[in-house]
Structure formats: C-alpha cells, structure tokens
Design a protein that fits this description.
Elements (H helix, E strand, L loop, with lengths): L6 E2 L12 E2 L2 H10 L6 H7 L2 H22 L2 H22 L4 H20 L7 H19 L4 H10 L9 H33 L5 H11 L2 H35 L11
Antiparallel strand pairs: 1-2
Helix pairs in contact: 1-7, 1-10, 3-4, 3-5, 3-9, 4-5, 6-8, 7-8, 8-9, 8-10
Length: 265
Amino acid sequence: MTDPVEPSGGEQAGSGHAPPRLSGGIGGAVAAGIGGERVSARGLLDTIGGVRGVLESLVPATIYLVAYVLTQDPRISAIAPLVVAVLAIALRLLRKQPLSAALSGLVGVLVCVAATLLTGRGEDYFLPGFWINAAWIAAHTISLAVGWPLIGLLVGFLRGALTEWRGIPVIRRAAVICTVLWIAVFAARLAVQVPLYLSANAGDAGAVEALGVARLVMGVPLFALAVLFTWLLMSRVSASYDGLRAARQDAESSGQPTAPSSSDE
C-alpha cells in the first residue's frame, strides 16, 4: 500500500502558523497524533486511504488471485486487474474526479503485470511488492543508524521545525519506537511472503495462492494496525511538544533565555 503525502490545510495545535499536513499513510498517522486528534474509526479509515483507497489497494491483487485460482494461467490472470484499473480511471474521468490516486494505482498494477507477462510465472505478480518493502526497510534503518528516524523527521516537517523535536527526549523515543515498528511491519511481510515465493518458484502448486492470500492479509489490515499504533503513541507525546514550544514562546516574550536544545547530541 502506498503512503500518500498530499499537503492540505489545517493549523497545528500549539504553533503560530499552519505547517504542511499529510493526508494519509504513515505521514497521516503522525499528523493526526502530533496534532492531538482523537482516534476514531472514521479517522483511521481516512488515514489508510478511505473506502476508495482501501478498495484500490485490495481489488487488483484480489482479482488476480481469483483469476489465477480459476484459470491457473498467470498471463490471463495478470490482465484482469489491469482492465479493472483502466476502468477505474475511466470512471473517474467521467465523474471529473482527481486522477492522482488512480494513476498511482495503475502504475503499480502495470509493474506487476509487466513482471508476470515477462516471466510467465504466477508468483512474479507479487515480486515488485518485495522491492518496495525492502526499500522502506532500508530507508527506515538508515535513518535510525544516522540518528534521524524518519518518524521524527515527519514530526519536524509537520511542525515547521525540522530539528526541534530532537531536543525533546520523549518525542525522540517515540520516533525511534515508531520507526522500528514500521521496519518490523515491512520485514514481517518479507519474512512470510518471500519463502512462499521461493516455494512457488520451486514448483509448489499451491504456493502462488498462499502467497496471494498472505499479500492480502498482510496488506491493508497490518498497515492499519501500524497506523493505529503510530497515531496513539504520537498522541500521547504531543503534549510534550506543545508544552516545550509554549514555554519557549513565553520565555522569548518575557526576554528570558531559553533552555538549550539537545538537537546536536
């Protein structure tokens, strides 16, 4: 599942300006949590892409899996979700709706279809997803290794101060925990799905179907759980951020020296 980072309006609590807002995915969870929004079923659904986003994520792989079970023909099965993706774009055009999400989904489907058509192997429909998860693992791991966890960078981006969060220990710890969580999510997908892919490559007749089911189960549901955890944890620590900023603003207005930041630690 993609992680949209579409900017939208909205002023963050405790700030004097309106920094960018991320509408969904990992960024949306951080934005909701650090902004003090209460967790709700509707809010969680919106953060993982809304009903349409969930459907656009689940439907192509589901159609491919069903078609493969019925036909056992990888190439025919790969064409089916491509047709649906094209129809989704046509429907959006008729309704004069934005095409960005649908086009992103179409590109993803095209890559999966191309991999399947080139090799003729059913398991290769899921191969691009492995590279995406591996890339996310690498990005999050590198950010931890250099001391700038990606979740912390998102906090800084949303608050309009890219380094300020590093001076607040509770925010830094939360950023590290959430970054490790997302590494675990992406790694869990690979740990389950790669062996199934290798089994299918070795000729296991039922491995492709098992891989398809694993892809669906570890897609939106697992993503939603990680989003919920991120939202809840960032909500718990957001008060620390607001308190420090308010204290600094009061000190500056009264002419008193502010406490030094530990951002250079």
